[in-house]
Amino acid sequence: MKETIEKAWSNRELLQESPTKEAVFAAIEMLDKGELRVAQPSENGIWIVNQWVKEAILLYFALSEMRTMTAGEMEYYDKIPLKRGLAERGIRAVPPATARYGSYIAPGAVLMPSYVNIGAYVDSGTMVDTWATVGSCAQVGKNVHLSGGVGIGGVLEPLQANPVIIEDNCFIGSRSIIVEGAIVEREAVIGAGTVITSSTHIIDVTGEHPVTYTGRVPARSVVIPGTYKRRFPAGEYGLPCALIIGQRKESTDLKTSLNEALRLF
Q1: Residue ranges of the domains in the chain?
Q2: pLDDT tens, 96-142?
Q3: 131 exposed, middle or buried (CB, 10 Å; 0-12, 13-18, 19+)?
Q4: 3-state DSSP call for residue 145?
């Protein structure tokens, strides 16, 4: 399957052949069932990205035809159908939650009125709260709470770009934005309104001297929005950053609310 899709990516004329079409459709079906992922952790915890799976998604767009879809009074015109069989899969979806075919939602996940795009992976026990979005190919672990209005960025192109990864047992506070392939490691708590990109300064201010990270939030960190000063020709200005203000304690219940975790600090 991988070889067939990679060849078709380099030569689009192969999309006219039945074996290529079958490989693309099979890949998307496997994504939908959770049998295939855009990215998965290795034994040493390093995330491995399968670029050929992103190629399969883009080829699926090329093969799919636009059609009218309806949901009661609402009408849509698109290429990608919605997920079906939610009850059989053990997924709770509150109207008008939307998950596209080719995304994986594990049994026990809860979708409030929200949106999950193709290629995304949402593991068991996770709640995607009201108006939160999980972008294409984003990977969200077990028992994560994506609070209201959270934006988890998606990625399909460029192919070498990594997806956003939220590891197990994280709290992502309301209206936070995690984009550009940033990784939030296990059990981290992200305070409301925090923006994390691949270049955001994530500054640990708990010691005598600041320690700066980019592209990832260390495990069990408690993070809030902040600013740091930078001088420009026109003067000194405050730039947005994220501040690590503490670590989750062993006594912190993983199911406690975001506000209770933040009150510790």
Answers
A1: 1-65, 80-249
A2: 999 999 999 999 999 999 999 999 999 999 999 999 999 999 999 99
A3: middle
A4: strand
| Burial category of 92 from C-beta neighbours within 10 Å (exposed 0-12, middle 13-18, buried 19 and up) | middle
In sequence order, the 6+-apart residues with CB closer than 8 A to the CB of 174 are 129, 147, 148, 149, 150, 192, 193, 258
* Pair of tokens at residue 86: 């939610």
For strands 67-71 and 74-78, give the pairing: antiparallel
- Evaluate if pTM is beyond 0.85: yes
User: Which residues, listed in sequence order, are joined to residue 237 by a DSSP beta bridge?
Assistant: 230
- Cα angle for residues 167, 169, 171 (degrees, 5° grid): 95
Q: Domain 80-249: which topology?
A: UDP N-Acetylglucosamine Acyltransferase; domain 1 (2.160.10)
CATH number for the region 1-65 comes to 1.10.166.10
